[in-house]
Specification:
Number of domains of chain A: 1
Binding site for substrate (chain B): 211-214, 233-236
Oligomer: heterodimer
Largest sheet of chain B: 8 strands, mixed
Strand content of chain A: 15-25%
Largest interface: A-B, 47 and 44 residues
Distance between the termini of chain B: 32 Å
Distance between the termini of chain A: 29 Å
Strand order of the largest sheet of chain A: 4-3-2-6-5-1-11-12
Catalytic activity (chain B): Cleavage of a beta-linked Asp residue from the N-terminus of a polypeptide
CATH topology of chain A: Glutamine Phosphoribosylpyrophosphate, subunit 1, domain 1
Organism (chain B): Carnegiea gigantea
Order of helices and strands of chain B: EHHEEHEHHHHEEEEEEEHHHEEEE
GO biological process, one term (chain B): proteolysis
Radius of gyration of chain A: 18 Å
Shape of chain A: globular
Strand order of the largest sheet of chain B: 4-3-2-8-7-1-14-15
CATH class of chain B: Alpha Beta
Active site (chain B): 183
CATH architecture of chain B: 4-Layer Sandwich
Number of helices of chain B: 10
Number of domains of chain B: 1
Order of helices and strands of chain A: EHHEEHEHHHEEEEHHHEEEE
CATH superfamily of chain B: (Glycosyl)asparaginase
Number of strands of chain B: 15
Chain lengths: 315, 313
């Protein structure tokens, strides 16, 4: 059995006619991050190192909703969160509310490895980041013009909603087509299994456009957006509150363990059960299978196996 | 329609040398809270309202580690967290890093019902609290005599105490004589078979500021669905890794175990070296608890008149 790796750059109502200037940089980004993961495995890096490296790349890419390029809170600020989990040991780490840390996923790994805790957030997490000497940047580094525009559109959509007194929740408004024609329900994530069947995953995000300051989504919630054990490693993306209420990542593992479902079936089942148009996930199993189901229009994704099969897709 | 059932807890991992008068105080509080829940259930208040009511009582009383009487962070401050979940639609609300809110569980409920999100933390949660007009207090209110001189090991004192303690029992890395059992919680199934759960805590004693435990994490410290309602307590990191509360439901749903069997299975098989406990109710009126820690402050009651409060095995 060889290694296998899958990564995603977010699920959402990505228009089928996504214009080239939006499609191409993201496809190139997916390809680049996949190559980073493939090279890492080829160089003998561990399953945990691979997922961290790939997610760092996705965070650094400004067109995915994590790290640089994170969507903005209602105050126009960035609050990033991430998690990482090792299926072999079930050790995990999570962070929320980061404003200056260039690679949230790496801070999550440090929480896992250098503290007796699992989850640090907001000022406490920023203080830990300084103690650990991780790379930080001015908050403006993370903010892109695209996201300022998205925030303005979301606020405008809210205003319109209030004017017409439509009983649509704020979140649904945020997810409809914006004038620029793409959706930002994203998150980024990577799952990997090495040739011995050891699995790991990492997930990172800026969260929801126009979110309230202090809002935590599914990404740092072990069992919700993130989970790994001896059966599978799962990273979910989409509407955070839906993923968390369904404890989606955990249910994939539960179905495999208690119902004996193979990975693809377990993953498909979980996604189908969720409200249409809200979620997607990537997962690997201990035997090297990959699953990437989604019930949205699209999900930026890529995968590769040691046997040299590789795939990059959006819809 | 089934009979209602209710359980409460005040934390798992109890000092075996806990003075008798403190044990009595704890049992009295648990009993009082049970009766508050029982009266509410007898007036047909829905499960979600009952769990909130009971946990508010536990937060307001300074005895256990939540609300008033919360364990203090390494800075000597209070950072409270709580979550609440209702089983019919699996809606939930959670808060972390709350410092001035008298009843974090009620703020968690407001997040669930009055915000577009499910989980708010730190300054965002505090701002929301002010917008919602919930009752606030400053640190004097939360920091009691007890949690000043009992729950924070003063520098140098913990090593000397450890030397005196002749049992090597440890919880979360602290000798059990110094450890403050974390968390309070309540689970309820009402006559309509609706389950709900709520958990609240000051968190780990002497914790690093910003540390979040299992209590506000859906699936870990708190979970409710159409089958059951669960609230956990103990070593937070072990509960998080095991997604303990959710596991009870998973094992009922996918292994077909009944409530007590599911609770026993999860405590025995899912905690590895971790020490924890939980209380649970099922949609058909059962109540159960389980723990592998040394003792858990708990109480449970069912509509047919059964009522029990305990600390030890």
């Amino acid at each position: 059995m060889g290694w296998a790796i899958a990564l995603h750059g977010g699920a959402g109502d990505i228009p089928v006619d996504l214009p080239p200037e939006k499609r191409e940089p993201r496809e190139a980004g997916l390809r680049h991050c996949l190559d980073v993961g493939i090279l890492a495995f080829k160089n003998g890096r561990s399953h945990l190192a691979v997922v961290e490296l790939v997610v760092r790349e996705l965070e650094n890419h400004p067109q995915f909703n994590a790290g640089r390029g994170s969507v903005l809170t209602t105050e126009g600020t960035v609050e990033m969160e991430a998690s990482i989990m090792d299926g072999q040991t079930k050790k995990c780490g999570a962070v929320s509310g980061l404003k200056t840390v260039v690679n949230a996923v790496s801070l999550a790994r440090l929480v896992m490895e250098r503290t007796s805790h699992i989850y640090l957030a907001f000022e406490g997490a920023e203080a830990f980041a300084r103690e650990q000497g991780v790379e930080t940047a001015d908050p403006s580094y993370f903010i892109t013009l695209e996201n300022i525009e998205r925030l303005n559109q979301a606020k405008e959509a809210n205003r319109v909603q209030i004017d017409y007194s439509q009983p649509i929740s704020r979140e649904v408004q945020v997810e409809t087509h914006t004038a620029s024609g793409d959706s930002q329900l994203g998150t980024v994530g990577c799952v990997a299994v090495d040739s011995d069947g050891n699995m790991a995953l990492a997930t990172s995000t800026g969260g929801l456009v126009n979110k309230m300051v202090g809002r935590i989504g599914d990404t740092p919630i072990i069992g919700a957006g993130t989970y790994a054990n001896s059966y599978c490693a799962v990273s979910a993306t989409g509407k955070g509150e839906t993923i968390a209420r369904g404890t989606m990542a955990g249910v994939v593992a539960v179905l495999m363990e208690f119902k004996g479902l193979p990975l693809k079936e377990a993953a498909a089942y979980v996604v189908e059960k969720a409200e249409r148009g809200t979620v997607g996930l990537i997962a690997v199993s201990a035997t090297g299978e990959i699953a990437m189901p989604f019930n949205t229009t699209g999900m930026f994704r890529a995968c590769a196996t040691e046997a040299a099969h590789s795939e990059i897709a959006i819809h | 329609m089934t009979g209602w059932a209710i359980a409460v807890h005040g934390g798992a991992g109890v000092d075996p040398n806990l003075p008798l008068h403190r044990q009595e105080e704890a049992k009295k509080l648990l009993t009082r809270c049970l009766y508050i829940g029982i009266s509410a259930l007898n007036t047909n208040l829905p499960a979600i309202d009952v769990v909130e009511l009971v946990v508010r009582e536990l937060e307001t009383d300074p005895l256990f580690n939540s609300g008033r009487g919360s364990a203090l962070t390494e800075k000597g401050t209070v950072e409270m967290e709580a979550s609440i979940m209702e089983g019919t639609k699996r809606k939930y609300g959670a808060v972390s890093g709350v410092t001035t809110v008298k009843n974090p569980v009620s703020l968690a409920r407001l997040v669930m019902e009055k915000s577009p999100h499910s989980y708010l933390a730190f300054s965002g949660a505090e701002d929301f609290a002010r917008e919602q007009g919930v009752e606030l207090a400053d640190s004097d209110y939360f920091i009691t005599q007890d949690n000043f001189d009992y729950r924070i090991p003063t520098p140098g004192l913990d090593s000397s105490c450890a030397a005196e303690v002749d049992n090597p029992m440890v919880m979360n890395g602290l000798p059990i004589s110094l450890y403050a059992p974390e968390t309070v919680g309540c689970v309820v199934v009402d006559k309509e078979g609706r389950c709900a759960a709520a958990t609240s805590t000051g968190g780990l004693m002497n914790k690093r500021s910003g540390r979040i435990g299992d209590s506000p994490i859906i699936g870990a410290g708190t979970y409710a669905c159409n089958l059951c309602g669960v609230s956990c307590t103990g070593e937070g990191e072990a509960i998080l890794r095991a997604t303990l509360a959710r596991e009870v439901a998973a094992v009922m749903e996918y292994k077909g175990l009944r409530l007590q069997e599911a609770v026993d299975f999860v405590i025995k098989e899912r905690l590895d070296e971790g020490k924890a406990g939980l209380i649970a109710v099922s949609s058909n009126g059962e109540v159960a608890c389980g723990f592998n820690a040394n003792g858990m402050f708990r109480g449970c009651a069912t509509e047919d008149g059964f009522i029990e409060v305990g600390i030890w095995e």
